[in-house]
Amino acid sequence: MLKVRxxxxxxxxxxxxxxGTGFDSWRRVGAAMPAIKVYNTRDVDELVLMDITATAExxxxxxxxxxxxxxxxxxxxxxxxxxxxxxxxRDLLRAGADKVIVNSAAYSNPELxxxxxxxxxxxxxxxxxxxxxxxDGEYVCCVRSGTxxxxxxxxxxxxxxxxxxxxxxxxxxxxRDGTLQGYDVDLLAQVAAAVSIPVIAAGGAxxxxxMLQALRVGASAVxxxxxxxxxxxxxxxxxxxxxxxxxxxxAAN
Length: 253
Description:
Blueprint: E1 5-13, E2 16-21, E3 24-30, H1 32-39, E4 47-51, H2 63-72, E5 77-80, H3 86-95, E6 99-102, H4 104-108, H5 111-120, E7 125-133, E8 139-143, E9 148-149, H6 154-164, E10 168-173, H7 185-194, E11 199-202, H8 208-216, E12 221-224, H9 226-230, H10 235-244
Parallel strand pairs: 1-4, 1-12, 4-5, 5-6, 6-7, 7-10, 10-11, 11-12
Antiparallel strand pairs: 1-2, 2-3, 7-8, 8-9
Helix pairs in contact: 2-3, 6-7, 8-10
């Protein structure tokens, strides 16, 4: 059985880390380099770094900064934000990223996912889905940091992304982001049941019990930002809690 991953998420904006709620990330929470050095010592299985303004600003990622961060990151490093071409995927991998997140650009250019998977392997391609509940109560995918609805449902889009070659799905319920109120387990269950690739739960984790619940409905990994930044809870204790409840995790040091 594959072991569950515990994945802290870092939101990067204007050279620093930020956090907020519902994708309104306004609160400064420090610099990326010290955070990465701390997480190197805390039994995390992977780190996600998202440049949350790159797409809105019409630019690619800061490759020099990614290179500097990757040199100090001793766990698998997943990077996203502003990824619009297969050349950007290549450049991020060359800069030290182990995986690259593709999101907004895939809606207008689905071939980006396929081209990246064929050139670099599906294991390098993480397809992000940011979803909210629309006024009619249905889930809908959003782009550009959650500011634009696509009219596409997350289940159908997850299936399409799998067919295109994505190696895993990073699934976020936008309204839960930063709230510490728990993942949207209904959304997770729907998407996880519809695809065979791993689904990473994101958006809303506030406790180890939230993580356990997400895994029980089908998530393969759990990501958290505010939970690790604003509470005393740690990735190591998360692993201990999950292991005590029968979840296979990588051993904590």
